[in-house]
Design goal:
The chain has 416 residues and is of the alpha/beta class. The chain has 16 helices and 14 strands. The strands form four sheets. It has an eight-stranded parallel beta barrel with strand order 3-4-5-8-9-12-13-14, surrounded by five helices. It has a two-stranded antiparallel sheet with strand order 1-2. β1 and β2 (43-45) form a beta hairpin. α4 (109-120) packs across α5 and α5 packs across α8 (224-233). The longest helix is centred in the middle third of the chain and has 18 residues, at 170-187. The radius of gyration is 20 Å and the shape is globular. The model has no long low-confidence stretch (mean pLDDT 97).
């Protein structure tokens, strides 16, 4: 199933996608399309590019942003990005993925306020800053010792000493989300993301098909945790609430969301999009996959990760379709698509083609923004991306943080 990137021209790439019956959109009018202004929940930004969240593993011990944390985001603004979806910030100590994950709390809200101020100082243009709030759940490792908090026991992603979160403790975590959202508003963020993706706690509850009680079994029960948080936020904050949402986990049923006994099935995923839209959610950042089991579903790659069981074109086609259908179901929402980096210098053309067609509103770059913080400037100026400036999808950056617990960086750039 693996296929390494070997295309010299956009035509070669598009022809290969067509042969596989997984056609990709494309436009050569890249700066004109990706440089279009967009109103995001009341704030107008000057382009359609989003810097996607990737944990930096470089906070201070108390969860405050370090100088390095802040500078990473300042670089992205200087590089032309006007919408930043900040990395996962824990809502409590128990839910931290590592000892250097950002964690917002009353004692350090001032440090986050200063971070926001310094990011905004990099440009006179409007910025839209989203803080991604999360509980790491199965991936919790707050003090260097794994302390997995799980919705259910999952043999696909086994954990020693897993703690199945009891129903009576869920309201406390909901309150942690509410408190974190209030602090995020105080710090000056433009929106909060209630992270529901990549196997973290809220995402895992979506797949709790066999969990007994009010938070498992039926669709209504499995989405209850997320919906109760959203209910509590209605009267707690005034800034918009967004969701980075998994449509498909890439795990077999009954251990993954977006599946049924016959295989991949996104019916419930689209139902959730409709339900979120009916509740007033107008910011949806679409993604797929779980890093511990199906990382190639999150982000197609050439090497360095788990052996893929599907073509990278399948992952690209799924992402394009998920974002397109989300936009159809939530027409007034701002919808962001992901998983572009494997496409190298042709990624902007694919994004431009889809945005011009109205398939979604914005294109998110994660790994590519780590490789080249100046990515947006290169795209929007008409220079385009040179192959040597592109992420080679070697998984080096994600392996550093997930396997080695080291600070995020591009290992290829380090060698230059």
């Amino acid at each position: 199933m693996a296929e390494t990137f070997h295309f010299s021209t956009a035509r070669e790439l598009l022809n290969r996608a067509k042969v596989l019956d997984m056609p990709l959109p494309y436009s050569e009018h890249i700066p004109e399309i990706l440089g279009q202004r967009l109103n995001i929940c009341g704030t107008t930004v000057s382009n359609r590019l989003v810097a996607q969240p990737i944990e930096g593993f470089d906070s201070q011990a108390d969860g405050s942003p370090s100088e390095r944390s802040i500078e990473r985001y300042c670089q992205l603004v200087r590089g032309g990005f006007r919408t930043l979806w900040l990395e996962s910030v824990s809502v409590d100590e128990q839910g931290r993925s590592n000892s250097f994950q950002l964690w917002i709390r009353p004692e350090n809200v001032g440090a986050f306020r200063d971070m926001v101020r310094r990011i905004r100082a990099q440009t006179e243009e409007n910025l839209f800053l989203v803080i991604q709030l999360t509980h790491s759940g199965r991936n919790s490792n707050p003090n260097g010792t794994p302390q997995p908090v799980c919705a259910f026991s999952n043999p696909c992603i086994p954990k020693e000493n897993e703690y199945i979160l009891p129903d009576e403790e869920i309201p406390e975590i909901e309150e942690d989300y509410v408190k974190a959202c209030i602090l995020a508003q105080e710090a000056g963020f433009d929106a909060v993301d209630i992270r529901t993706c990549h196997g973290y706690l809220l995402n895992e509850f979506l797949a709790a098909y066999h969990r007994p009680g009010p938070y498992g079994g039926s669709y209504e029960n499995r989405t209850r945790f997320l919906m109760e948080i959203l209910d509590k936020l209605e009267s707690a904050i005034t800034i918009p609430v967004g969701i980075r949402l998994n449509m498909y986990d890439g795990l077999p049923w009954p251990y993954g969301w977006g599946a049924d006994p016959q295989g991949e099935n996104l019916e419930e995923s689209y139902r959730l999009v409709s339900d979120l839209y009916a509740r007033g959610i107008r910011l949806l950042n679409i993604t797929n996959g779980i890093g511990a089991y199906s990382p190639f579903v999150i982000r197609p790659y050439d090497r360095g990760g788990k052996e893929p069981t599907e073509s990278p074109f399948r992952g690209l086609a799924r992402m394009q379709e998920c974002a397109k259908q989300t936009k159809a179901l939530a027409p007034e929402a701002v919808v962001i698509a992901s998983a572009f980096s494997w496409l190298r210098e042709f990624a902007p053309g694919v994004a431009a083609g889809a945005i011009a067609a109205g398939d979604y509103d914005m294109a998110g770059f994660g790994r590519q923004s780590i490789r080249l913080p100046d990515t947006a400037n290169k795209i929007l100026s008409g220079q385009g991306l040179l192959r040597k400036e592109c992420c080679v999808t070697c998984c080096g950056c994600t392996n550093l943080i997930k396997k080695s617990g080291k600070m995020l960086r591009c290992v290829i750039k380090d060698k230059e």
